[in-house]
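Morning, I've got a small favour to ask if you have a moment. The fold is given in discrete form, as structure tokens running alongside the sequence. I'd be grateful if you could look everything over and explain what you see. No rush at all, and the record is pasted right below.
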Amino acid sequence: MKSTGIVRKVDELGRVVIPIELRRTLGIAEKDALEIYVDDERIILQKYKPSMTCQVTGEISDHNLSLADGKLVLSPEGAKELVKEINQSLEDK
């Protein structure tokens, strides 16, 4: 685990501000959902991604394809974009 050297206090309502530098680096925008995990005495925050979110388009649907033992989720549109990009890469070589 990498230390950032950033320290924040918990306010009276239990809130902690995540610095903008970290939010930008991790791609966390205003109103994004964060998933909270606990590992022994550590609290882990992770940007929430529903399980059937297309990794190319971001579309959430039960009709998305789950490939490579669940490691890759694609919407039909995302799959088309990916195939097009792969074909383009192969043609360039």
Observations:
- Strands lie at 34-39, 42-47, 65-67, 72-74.
- The two ends are 38 Å apart (CA to CA).
